[in-house]
Specification:
Chain lengths: 112, 111
């Protein structure tokens, strides 16, 4: 299995608070992605990174920001959490663009 | 606008029989297709892929078929085993850095 960890694995937070999720890889892959999984929607891309300090938006990027200051770490920040952001968040990595992506174990976030 | 569609939310198959999971896409620019399997409380795991220059790719019990004219791909699992019970996602990409995922099909293999 690819070396991908996500932290925290579970989090409950209140509406309006900022939240940061962390993805850490040991594979030295160039590409990193953040997805959310919701019933009836499958996996939807939030943001992705194609190198250190290089990021771009996905289809559901509103309310989220990302940062990548090192190859191995990709942070997802919810500026001001809302109940609609209650979801399971997955990080993925890939050696090359749109090639096979390898997923982390996920973070279950509940916004009350 | 759902570019990748999995119209069957669930499928139930007897152990030993064939499981066929289907996926349709609308974007003719897609040229690479993948299937992922997901168990509860785990991340999706890559299963098998196919390039648009092929119409079939096989890996053990898993075979993916691509019909470009119909914009349709399918995953065949033969023989199905109880451990195959999971949610299966198809995904597609085409000249971008992104994968577009379908909504998933829950496969249940019963004894």
């Amino acid at each position: 299995d690819a070396g991908i960890t996500q932290s925290p694995r579970h989090k409950v937070t209140e509406t309006g608070t900022p939240v940061t999720l962390r993805c850490h890889q040991t594979e030295n892959h160039r590409y990193m992605y953040w997805y959310r999984q919701d019933p009836g929607h499958g996996l939807r891309l939030i943001h992705y990174s194609y190198g250190v300090k290089d990021t771009d938006k996905g289809e559901v990027s509103d309310g989220y920001s990302v940062s990548r200051s090192k190859t191995e770490d990709f942070l997802l920040t919810l500026e001001s959490a809302t109940s609609s952001q209650t979801s399971v968040y997955f990080c993925a990595i890939s050696e090359a663009s749109a090639y096979e992506q390898y997923f982390g174990p996920g973070t279950r976030l509940t916004v009350t | 606008d759902q570019q990748v569609k999995q119209n069957s939310p669930s499928l139930s198959v007897q152990e030993g029989r064939i499981s066929i999971l289907n996926c349709d896409y609308t974007n003719s620019m897609f040229d690479y297709f993948l299937w992922y399997k997901k168990y509860p409380a785990e991340g999706p795991t890559f299963l098998i892929s196919i390039s648009s220059i092929k119409d079939k790719n096989e890996d053990g019990r898993f075979t993916v078929f691509l019909n470009k004219s119909a914009k349709h791909l399918s995953l065949h699992i033969v023989p199905s085993q109880p451990g195959d019970s999971a949610v299966y996602f198809c995904a597609a990409s085409g000249h971008t850095d992104k994968l577009i995922f379908g909504t998933g099909t829950r496969l249940q293999v019963f004894p």
